[in-house]
Amino acid sequence: MTRSAHPLPRTGTGTGTRRPKRPGTQVGTGRRGWHLRHFPCRLLAGGILTQAAVPVALITAITLAATFAPMAVHLSPLLVAAPTSTAAFAGSRFTAGTAVAASAAMFVIDRHDGLLHSPLLPIHISALLVVSAFVVAARALHDRDLRELTQVRAVAQAAQRVVLRPLPRQLGPLRVACTYRAAAAHALVGGDLYAAARTGRATRFLIGDVRGKGLPAVEDASALLGAFREAAHQHATLPELTAALESSIRRHLAQLTDSDPESSEHFITALLVEIPDDAPLIHVISCGHPSRLRCHRGQVTALPAPHPAPPLGLASTTPDTYHVDTFEFGPADTLLLYTDGVIEARNTTGAFYPILDRASTWTWECPHNLLRHVNHDVDTHTGGHLQDDLALVAIQRTPTPDTGQDPSLPQPPHPTEAHP
């Protein structure tokens, strides 16, 4: 047990026992605890003062202008601007309070103008209150819709994270980084996908791209991810795993035929990678998916696929028809997997992103930093406007397998937890 640097308070008996905690007390009620407990209150007070600045300034300015204006010029109807402008950024209660304050200021101005016993005074105040009532009601409806939208977005984000789970940063002797960027606004997932599974003394990766966009693409991606997470632990070889995934996708598409006649035309390009722990190799099966980049001994090359299979949904259910490509993948080597959202990213002139030419300018020492370079480079090329979903997975074999994460290397946030 670590002894505290400050002596503990003792009771009057001198026995050295801890002073009993008073009921209702909590840790951190000293000077630091006071700051923590009152910091939200300070933020709340600052927010209220900021919201009050606009209506107070309007009411004050109109009141002062009416004071110096001729009595024949009635400026009190201008006070309706206070509650209407407040409703643009404040809640319904604050807007209602602003309406009350504006009514009081209107009474002061009309009294100054000699309208205390005139029928114009109740007309002015009634008009202000009627307009304010409509504004407050509209703001209340807006607040209700905003709460519902926030709740729906929270549920949608949770569901999307279940579909596309972030990959662990360390899988056996491999350091892993991943990032996903959906082209659709307010979406976390789309038609691109990736997954990983530890199977004994090897790690298997899947990256794919579903034909189409929108909810049907997400449904197809979810079906393939679920099949991979289960089948990756049941089949000893990559060809067997690929054939099992093809069978699962065919069953999934067959179930959709009744509701979606075009489901028979759906397919998924996929790349399956197996990296053994005890051999400096990678085994790859390509099902119509774009190539991949490897940084081997400082040289970046695109790994070929001499015998690619058709995309899943159009391929074979026989394992013997799949060809496994094997490449060297030693310590400190890095593999970059990507979807066609990267290579098909266009600039303002319509030119595709030259990934192989740009790869030599990236930093390959850290998978996380590598993905940051790629994302920044793609944004520079496209001007920040993606036309398609984009998925990236960077895999690096550590120099000394089975020793865990190198403590000397930086630990940046996971790319799926922070915007690239």
Strand segment tally: 11
Radius of gyration from CA coordinates: 32 Å
Distance between the termini: 42 Å
N-to-C order of helices and strands: HHHHEEEEHHEEEEEEHHHE
Helix content: 40-55%
Give the class from helix and strand content and strand pairing.
alpha+beta
Q: What is the mean pLDDT? A: 81
Number of helices: 9
Share of residues in strands? 15-25%
Q: Name the poorly predicted regions.
A: 1-45, 401-420
Instruction: Give the strand line-up of the largest sheet.
Output: 1-2-11-10-7-8
Main β-sheet description: 6 strands, antiparallel
Globally, the shape reads elongated
Task: Describe the protein's architecture and organization.
The chain is of the alpha+beta class. The radius of gyration is 32 Å and the shape is elongated. It starts with 30 loop residues before the first helix and ends in a 23-residue tail after the last strand.
What are the key terms here?
single chain; 420 residues; alpha+beta; 6-stranded antiparallel beta sheet; 5-stranded antiparallel beta sheet; 9 helices; 11 strands; elongated; disordered C terminus
How would you summarize this macromolecular structure in one to three sentences?
With 420 residues, the chain is an alpha+beta fold. It is built from nine helices and eleven strands. 34% of the residues are buried.
What topology emerges from the helices and strands here?
Blueprint: H1 31-68, H2 81-86, H3 92-112, H4 120-163, E1 170-171, E2 174-181, E3 192-198, E4 202-210, H5 214-231, H6 238-256, E5 268-276, E6 281-287, E7 292-296, E8 299-303, E9 325-328, E10 334-338, H7 340-343, H8 355-359, H9 367-382, E11 390-397
Antiparallel strand pairs: 1-2, 2-11, 3-4, 4-5, 5-6, 6-9, 7-8, 7-10, 10-11
Helix pairs in contact: 1-3, 3-4, 5-6
